[in-house]
Specification:
This is Ring-cleaving dioxygenase. Keywords: Dioxygenase, Oxidoreductase. It comes from Paenibacillus oceani. By secondary structure, the protein is an alpha+beta fold. It is built from five helices and 16 strands. β15 and β16 form a beta hairpin. The longest helix is centred in the last third of the chain and has 13 residues. It is globular and about 45 Å long. The N and C termini lie far apart (56 Å).
Length: 316
């Protein structure tokens, strides 16, 4: 079996305020809150998932919003920039929209593509890029028309403490193909249509530090459970020590830290986010795995209330 990931499954980051997190990703960016659950290893902390209407792999950014947590520092061993794909001819709309919410933007060009770069309320670095490929959004919220709405991930920019080793992992383990390079970056592509373009910054960077405003890990797609086992074997054969397969309720996960310092996860596409909720009601209720259900009252009492709500622009 030749293993090649289709691209990014999800990206998980740290935050502080859960309501401000919802306000930014749902209220400003117009993503759907598709799952409201807890950090299975720290049930006093939410685990919030934002994506497209169905919560499809390649569209999901997740957060652990821990009030009072430390501020992180973006650097080596991290996903430095999370890139979102928007439809062609929509960057002007997004520049105006972000500006109306007081979000500063910077226009930049990488590999002949114009990107609109900005940061979220915690300092997490994001960008928008126009892409033809990828299914159009079917989700509209907060005044964002579907023909301008975020499709999902365009990809990511990886910051490494050893870029040669990170590049080796992308090519030899994940099966990504090198498609272009400059003095600053090398670009790789996976075979999927979303979350499929990965840029590696060539300059080795000093280590970043985890905390609010930084990415914890980037997850890559496995088609199904049998393939997932094969992925774990492949990672081991390349000299890494992956975790055992971990049931994350909505996907199975295997983690390993590649030699450039970035925490990689390989996650299964199934079973998906509709396994315990109707698709039309995703994200409306706090969902708990069965082993936490007996503690529901205590868990809910320890979590700050959150609400998906439309935001009013700061600048008219």
């Amino acid at each position: 079996m030749t293993l090649q990931t289709a691209g990014i499954h999800h990206i998980t980051a740290f935050a502080r305020s859960p309501q401000e997190n919802v306000d930014f990703y749902a209220g400003v960016l117009g993503l759907r809150l598709v799952k409201k659950t807890i950090n299975f290893d720290a049930p006093e902390v939410y685990h919030l998932y934002f994506g497209n209407e169905q919560g499809s792999p390649g569209t999901i950014i997740t957060f652990f919003p821990f009030p009072g947590s430390r501020k992180g520092r973006i650097g080596g061993g991290q996903t430095g920039i999370t890139s979102y794909a928007v439809p062609p001819r929509s960057l002007d709309f997004w520049e105006e929209r972000l500006g109306s919410f007081g979000v500063p933007v910077v226009k930049s060009v990488r590999f002949s593509e114009q990107v609109l770069q900005f940061s979220d309320n915690e300092g997490l670095r994001l960008e928008l890029v126009e892409r033809e490929e990828g299914l159009a959004s079917t989700w509209s919220f907060g005044g964002i028309p579907v023909d301008k709405a975020i499709k999902g991930f365009a990809g990511a920019v990886l910051y490494s403490v050893n870029s040669a080793k990170t590049i080796e992992a992308l090519e030899s383990i994940l099966g990504l193909k090198k498609v272009d390079s400059t003095d600053e970056y090398v670009r790789f592509r996976a075979h999927g249509e979303i979350g499929n373009v990965i840029d590696v910054r060539l300059a080795n960077m000093d280590w970043g530090s985890g905390g609010a405003g930084t990415v914890h890990h980037i997850a890559w797609r496995a088609k199904h459970f049998d393939e997932h086992e094969a992925w774990r074997t492949k990672v081991t054969e390349h000299g890494y020590q992956p975790t055992p397969v971990i049931d994350r309720q909505y996907f199975n996960a295997v983690y390993f830290r590649e030699a450039g310092g970035i925490l990689f996860e390989i996650a299964t596409d199934p079973p998906g986010f509709a396994v315990d909720e109707n698709t039309g009601a995703l994200g409306e209720k706090l969902m708990l795995p069965e082993w936490y259900e007996p503690q529901r009252a205590q868990i809910e009492a320890n979590l700050l209330p959150i609400k998906v709500r439309e935001r009013e622009a700061k600048v008219k």
